[in-house]
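Q: What structure does this chain adopt?
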Amino acid sequence: MDRYREMIRSMLESMIQDRSECMAELMQCPSGTLWKAEKNGRPAYYWAHKEGDIYVRRGISRNYDMQRQLARKAYLSKSVKILDRNISQLSRVLSRYEPLETGEVVRRLAKAYQELPGEYFQQEKG
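A:
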């Protein structure tokens, strides 16, 4: 098998696994987002989320664990978007990939070249 194709396939499989792990962790994150405002010249952090039909902001300036969870959620969400784009691009590359093995290249040459001995296409040792 072509080593470049295998590297692309391996990258693709790793990204698919990473995406799956991100999605699993995202399912455990709290709903809502982090919101920041200035209060008395200092940053004030809020947890913005829906409770029923009402959109609510709760102060979490001293709740560092909630800040961390919301930051992690934002990071994971952005990571999934980037992984989706990269997975799509690598899938496209893999589907259009052309091997660089000697036999494959020679098959694409004119018939006159295809009939020559294989060693003619190898780099001369010297």
